[in-house]
C-alpha cells in the first residue's frame, strides 16, 4: 500500500493534533509506570516462597486484561459519544473492536467529517487498555497466593469486559450516570471500587493464608521479604500519575483550553497541584497514624489513601480543599483496616484504600462540591447533552459508588459459582504452605526464613 500525498487529510495530522497525541501517549507511559510501582510493592510484601508466582500472575493478568480491552473493551466506553451523536452502542463496537473500521484506519486517510481526531481516539485505546490491565493487578492483591491461576486468568478476561461497560456509565461526560450528576474525574469507580467489590466476594469465600492472620503449625508467621521495596514503588506511582492526569483532560480551541473529562471547569495547574496535595496530606496523616499506632502499614497506606480519596475530584477541588481531604483520608483507611484485622479478614489493601478512602472521597466530593456544573459536551447548547447542564450531586455520588461496588460483587458472585462447580477457586493449603513457586514452578527461595517450619 503506497502513500498517496494527494489523498491526505491534512486536518488530521496538524502540529496541534500531534501535541495532543503526545500528551495522551505520555499518559499511557505514566500508567505503565504505575504498573511497575505496583509490582515493586507486591515484591516487597509477598511471602518469599510465593514471590515469583505472585509477580508473574500479576504481569500476565495485566496483559490478559490489556489484550481483552483491545479486542472489545474500547467500543463500550466510546459508545457514550456515539449515543450523544444519535448513533448506537453497537455502532461504536463495530467501529472500535479489534477488527473495526476506526481501529484499523489511518488517520491521514480518514475524512475528518467521518471521524475527526482519529489518532487521539486510537491512542486512547492503548491508554484505557493499560487501566484494564491495572484493574487485574489490583484485584490480584486481594487474592494473591490463594486463588488458582486458572480462576484468576478467567476473571481477568471477564473483569476487563465488565469494567469497560462500567466505564461507559461512570467515566466521561455523557455516560448515563455521569450525565445524571455522578462525578469521577480519575475513574475511581471502575478502576478501584469495581475490583474492590469483586474482592469482597472472593476474599470472604477463601480461607486466610496460612500464617497471615494467626500462627500456623508449619508457618509461624507471614513475613514479607523486603518492605523497603514498597517506598520506591510508592514514589514510582507518584511519578507516573501526573502524566495520567493530563490524559484525563480534553483540550479545545483556543489552542489548548483544558476541560475535565467530565466537562467541569478546571485547568492543568490546578489539577496537578490538587494531585500533589492529596498525596502530601495523605502522607502526613498516615505518618501520624503510624507513629500513634506503631503500625508501619500506615506509612504506606497514608499517601495512597490521600490520592485515592482525592482522585475523583482533582479537577474541581481548590488546593486547600485537596490538602484537607488528603489529611483526613487515612482515617477512613484506618477504620477499615482495623475492622478487618480484628475480624481475621485476610485483605489489607483494597478494602482500606478503595472501600475506605475511595468511598470516603466520593462522598466528600458529593457534600463539599455539590452544585458544581459539569456533564454534557462542549458545543452542545441545549438538550440532554448540553455543556455543563448537570451538577455534582451527593445522591448521585452514593448511586455511583453503589453501582461500581455492586457490579464487582455481582460479577464475582457469578464467577465464584461457576468456579466452584468446575475448575475450583482456591489453591490447596498444602501448596500454600510449601509455597506456590515450588508447587507450580519448581522454584525454591534462596534463603529459608525462621517462620517456615517445612
Features:
mainly alpha, 3% strand, globular, two-stranded antiparallel ribbon, single chain, 15 helices, 454 residues
What does the model show?
The relative contact order is 0.14. The longest helix has 34 residues, at 51-84. A hairpin with a 4-residue loop joins strand 1 (249-252) and strand 2 (257-260). Helices cover 63% and strands 3% of the residues. The chain has helices at 15-45, 51-84, 89-96, 118-143, 149-170, 176-180, 188-205, 230-246, 268-293, 297-311, 319-342, 350-368, 394-421, 429-434, 436-441, and strands at 249-252, 257-260, 373-374, 390-391. Helix 9 packs antiparallel against helix 10. It is globular and about 75 Å long. It is an all-alpha fold. The chain has a two-stranded antiparallel ribbon. It has 15 helices and four strands.
Helix and strand sequence: HHHHHHHHEEHHHHEEHHH
Question: How many strand segments?
Answer: 4
The secondary structure category is mainly alpha
Broad shape: globular
> Tell me about the biggest sheet?
2 strands, antiparallel
The low-pLDDT segments are: none
DSSP helix fraction: 55-70%
Gyration radius, to the nearest Å? 22 Å
Specify the oligomeric state: single chain
Task: Report the portion of residues in β strands.
Answer: under 5%
Strand arrangement, largest sheet?
1-2
Mean pLDDT value:
94
Helical element count? 15
Span between termini: 63 Å
Amino acid at each position: 500500500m503506497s502513500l498517496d500525498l494527494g489523498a491526505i487529510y491534512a486536518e488530521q495530522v496538524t502540529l496541534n493534533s500531534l501535541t495532543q497525541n503526545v500528551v495522551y501517549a505520555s499518559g499511557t507511559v505514566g500508567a505503565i509506570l504505575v504498573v511497575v510501582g505496583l509490582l515493586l510493592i507486591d515484591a516487597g510484601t509477598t511471602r518469599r516462597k510465593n514471590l515469583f508466582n505472585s509477580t508473574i500472575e500479576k504481569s500476565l493478568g495485566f496483559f490478559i486484561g490489556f489484550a481483552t480491552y483491545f479486542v472489545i473493551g474500547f467500543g463500550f466506553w466510546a459508545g457514550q459519544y456515539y449515543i450523544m451523536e444519535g448513533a448506537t452502542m453497537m455502532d461504536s463496537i463495530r467501529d472500535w473492536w479489534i477488527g473495526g473500521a476506526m481501529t484499523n484506519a489511518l488517520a491521514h486517510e480518514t475524512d475528518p467529517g467521518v471521524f475527526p481526531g482519529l489518532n487521539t481516539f486510537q491512542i486512547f485505546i492503548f491508554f484505557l487498555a493499560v487501566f484494564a490491565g491495572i484493574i487485574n493487578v489490583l484485584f490480584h492483591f486481594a487474592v494473591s497466593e490463594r486463588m488458582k491461576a486458572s480462576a484468576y486468568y478467567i476473571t481477568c478476561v471477564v473483569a476487563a469486559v465488565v469494567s469497560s461497560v462500567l466505564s461507559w456509565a461512570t467515566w466521561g461526560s455523557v455516560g448515563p450516570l455521569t450525565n445524571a450528576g455522578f462525578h469521577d474525574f480519575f475513574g475511581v469507580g471502575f478502576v478501584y471500587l469495581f475490583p474492590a467489590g469483586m474482592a469482597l466476594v472472593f476474599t470472604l469465600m477463601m480461607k486466610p493464608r496460612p500464617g497471615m492472620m494467626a500462627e500456623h503449625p508449619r508457618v509461624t508467621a507471614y513475613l514479607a521479604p523486603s518492605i523497603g521495596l514498597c517506598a520506591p514503588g510508592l514514589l514510582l506511582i507518584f511519578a507516573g500519575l501526573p502524566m495520567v492526569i493530563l490524559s484525563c483532560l480534553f483540550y479545545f480551541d483556543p489552542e489548548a483550553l483544558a476541560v475535565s473529562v467530565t466537562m467541569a471547569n478546571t485547568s492543568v495547574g490546578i489539577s496537578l497541584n490538587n494531585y500533589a496535595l492529596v498525596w502530601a496530606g495523605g502522607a502526613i496523616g498516615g505518618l501520624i497514624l503510624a507513629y500513634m499506632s506503631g503500625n508501619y502499614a500506615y506509612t504506606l497506606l497514608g499517601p495512597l489513601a490521600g490520592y485515592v480519596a482525592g482522585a475523583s475530584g482533582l479537577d474541581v477541588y481548590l488546593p486547600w480543599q485537596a490538602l484537607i481531604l488528603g489529611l483526613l483520608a487515612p482515617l477512613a483507611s484506618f477504620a477499615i483496616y482495623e475492622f478487618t484485622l480484628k475480624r481475621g479478614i485476610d485483605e489489607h489493601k483494597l478494602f482500606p484504600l478503595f472501600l475506605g478512602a475511595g468511598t470516603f472521597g466520593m462522598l466528600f466530593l458529593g457534600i463539599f462540591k455539590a452544585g458544581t456544573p459539569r456533564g454534557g459536551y462542549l458545543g452542545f447548547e441545549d438538550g440532554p447533552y448540553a455543556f455543563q447542564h448537570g451538577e455534582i450531586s451527593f445522591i448521585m455520588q452514593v448511586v455511583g459508588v453503589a453501582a461500581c461496588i455492586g457490579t464487582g460483587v455481582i460479577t464475582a458472585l457469578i464467577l465464584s459459582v461457576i468456579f466452584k462447580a468446575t475448575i475450583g477457586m482456591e489453591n490447596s493449603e498444602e501448596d500454600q504452605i510449601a509455597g506456590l513457586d515450588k508447587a507450580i514452578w519448581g522454584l525454591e527461595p534462596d534463603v529459608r526464613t525462621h517462620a517456615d517450619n517445612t
